[in-house]
Design brief:
With about 375 residues, the chain is an alpha/beta fold. The protein is built from 11 helices and 11 strands.
């Protein structure tokens, strides 16, 4: 077991900011009064064993800056719970733009949107070279929703560099049979797709659906309306970029149902962008069903969370499980941690079962 888990990041946005802040936050807390973690230790690895060794972004306010500065730069707006991240010595490189910038975002004030850097973009061979030179073991894909080409660009770089890929975005790569096969043949462990927050709208909605099913209430209709103020929600105002996101979020919930209620009776997805909310995310969930005697019942819930720290709580689990798989020489999609931390894993499992599978994987009782 090496001392550090060497991580590269594609997209130094709010989620990356929360993850990096968390590494140093928990390093200071140590083992005293630890909260907010699903596992303090995984295979001997603590959160502070993660080290960022490379990073890419396309915003001029981040490119060329040390990661410790870039994570606080606009348009990032997440909560600052660790204000003193020390200099890492890692400068953010200019990534390949491809489809990583929605055209409509240029119409918004720069403090709320991207400002593309006017620098030479790293080509595929550049990314592969940097991953090899830095001895990176894992690359986290945090490119924006809808950036399908960009996600595959970094996935391909990982394949060529022998680096594990964690896909936090809803481009189907790890859950795609062909991509998963390529990583398995290369002996590279991967996790995806589309990060599922620690306690977010998806996991809460799934839990409510499971409760209805377990208690014999027939689910007839349900919706989940999400909105927030970060650049993720601004990016998703371009509805054409939402195809895989809606599929990912919808299947994450409907996979719990043992019957089909019809596409017209399920609506799950981002609804709007409210700038002053910043990184707060609000979700409104409604479920309608029939209980004993076909008597109707309704349940409504409002969830209000800081979006990116919620995501980082799951990512810190995924990174350490990938490292554990690398230590054990395991390649391909990791079904257990993917089901536990992702909305669209290769195989959907009930959350209680996914949790048990992860515990078995950590103990070495399950291969992946």
């Amino acid at each position: 077991m090496s001392e550090k888990i060497r991580v590269a990041i594609a997209g130094v946005g709010n989620c990356a900011s929360s993850l990096v802040q968390g590494i140093y936050y928990y390093a200071k807390k140590g083992t005293v009064d630890v909260s907010g973690l699903m596992h303090e230790e995984i295979g001997g690895y603590k959160p502070w064993d993660i080290e960022v060794v490379a990073a890419w972004d396309i915003d001029e306010r981040k490119v060329g800056r040390d990661v410790s500065e870039a994570i606080y730069s606009q348009p990032n707006c997440t909560a600052v719970f660790e204000p003193k991240v020390p200099r890492t010595g890692v400068k953010v490189r200019m990534g390949k733009i491809l489809d990583g910038l929605a055209q409509h975002m240029k119409d918004y004030p720069p403090e709320r949107s991207f400002v593309p850097a006017q620098e030479k973009e790293d080509e595929l061979e550049d990314v592969v070279r940097v991953l090899k030179e830095t001895d990176a073991e894992v690359l986290i894909n945090y490119v924006p929703v809808g950036a399908e080409e960009s996600a595959r660009f970094y996935a391909q770089a990982c394949l060529e560099a022998g680096v594990s890929f964690i896909n936090a975005m809803p481009t189907f790569i790890v859950s795609d049979t062909e991509w998963a096969k390529r990583f398995e043949e290369a002996g590279i462990p991967v996790v995806g797709d589309d990060i599922k927050s620690q306690v977010g709208a998806t996991i809460v909605h799934r839990t409510l659906v499971q409760l209805f099913v377990d208690r014999g209430v027939k689910v007839e209709r349900t919706y989940q309306l999400n909105f927030g103020g970060n650049t993720d929600f601004l990016n998703m105002l371009e509805r054409s970029r939402l195809a895989t996101k809606k599929v990912s979020k919808t299947q994450a919930v409907t996979s719990v149902l043992p019957y089909d209620i019809g596409w017209e009776n399920v609506h799950i997805g981002p609804s709007d962008w409210v700038p002053w909310l910043k990184d707060r995310k609000l979700a409104y969930i409604r479920m309608e069903g029939k209980l004993f005697g076909d008597v109707p019942m309704y349940a409504e819930l409002k969830l209000d969370v800081e979006d990116s720290p919620n995501s980082a709580g799951s990512m810190i689990e995924a990174v350490r499980c990938v490292k554990l798989a690398r230590d054990r020489g395991i390649g391909g999609a990791l079904y257990s941690i993917s089901a536990y931390t992702m909305k669209h894993p290769p195989i959907q499992y009930p959350d209680w079962q996914a949790k048990r599978m992860v515990e078995e994987f950590i103990k070495g009782e399950r291969e992946r």
